[in-house]
C-alpha cells in the first residue's frame, strides 16, 4: 500500500518538474500518463489522496496551467464507459471523460462490426448490465445466461430465476437460434452455469443449444471451425478489501479450457483482451492520441504507466502503448 502511494506521488512530482520545461511546447510532446485504477488510484472503495493530488496536477492545477494527457486503463468493467467516468470524476475530484477511460471490454466495440447483427452470448456482470453495455456497443442480438435458463430450466437446474431476473430475461426459443460467438464481458457470477453454457455452444452444431458436433468427424473439431470465444481480461487474481487475492476471469478461462480438454480432447481456442494484451494497448494508444492532439490523433511522446503488478508494468519507466 505504501509502495503504491509512493508511485502515485512520484507521478505528481514528474508532472510538476516537467510543467515549466514543457510550458512553451505543444501538449502532445508529453509526457503522458496511464494509470491502473484498482490498487493504484483506489484501494477497494477507498480513493487514495495521493491519486486525487496527482490527477489534479495533471489536469492543470500545477502553478502553470499546463495539462498533461492521461488515461485510466483497467481490467474492470460491467458498465458503460460514460457511467464509470462520471463516478470516477466524483470520486477523484477531476473531470474524467469517457474517452479517457479504457475498461476491459472497451475493445469489444470493434467486434460489433463483425457480430452486430448476429446472436451472441454475453457472459458476466450483475443482472443484465453487460447486455445493456453490449447493446450500446452495437450488438443487436445480445443474450445472457439467464435467458437460456428461462428457456429451458434443465440446462442449469441449480438456478431458480428470481422475480428480479424474470423482469429482464428475454423469452426466446433457443433451439432456433444460431449463436455466432461468446463474449465474456465481465467476471462471472455463476461459474458452473457459465462454463456449462459456453461449452454447450462451443461443442454444438452450428451454435445451437441442445445440439452436438459428431465426435468422430475430425473436420468439425478443427480449431478454425470452433465457435469464437472472447474474454475481456486475463486476470487470474484480483484484489479487493479481503486480505487475500480473489480468483478472476483468468481463472474462469483456465477452468473452462480444462473442462473442454477433458470432455473433448481438444484445446479451447479463445481470444483474450484487457491488460496486458496488444489489443487493449493499441486501443488505448488511439484514445491517447486524440486526447493529446485532436487534430492529428497522434501522440509520439513518452508514456509513464503506473500499475500494481510488477510483472505487467514498468513503474514510471517510458513504455509505448503501441508501436509507432
Distance between the termini: 34 Å
Assess the beta-strand content as a share of residues. 5-15%
SSE run: HEEEHEHEHEHEHHEHEEEHEHE
Tell me the number of helical segments per DSSP (H or I, 4 or more residues long): 10
Question: Biggest β-sheet, characterized?
Answer: 5 strands, parallel
Low-confidence stretches: 1-12, 14-27, 314-324
- Which structural class do the helices and strands define? alpha/beta
Largest sheet, order of strands side by side? 7-6-8-9-12
Our Rg estimate from Cα atoms comes to: 22 Å
Tell me the total number of β-strands: 13
Give the overall shape.
Answer: elongated
Average the pLDDT over all residues and give the rounded result.
87
The helical percent reads 25-40%
Blueprint of the fold:
Layout: H1 2-21, E1 32-35, E2 42-43, E3 46-47, H2 49-58, E4 70-73, H3 81-92, E5 101-102, H4 112-115, E6 119-123, H5 129-137, E7 141-143, H6 145-151, H7 163-168, E8 181-184, H8 191-202, E9 229-231, E10 237-238, E11 246-247, H9 249-264, E12 271-272, H10 278-292, E13 303-306
Parallel strand pairs: 1-4, 1-13, 4-5, 6-7, 6-8, 8-9, 9-12
Antiparallel strand pairs: 2-3, 10-11
Helix pairs in contact: 1-2, 8-9
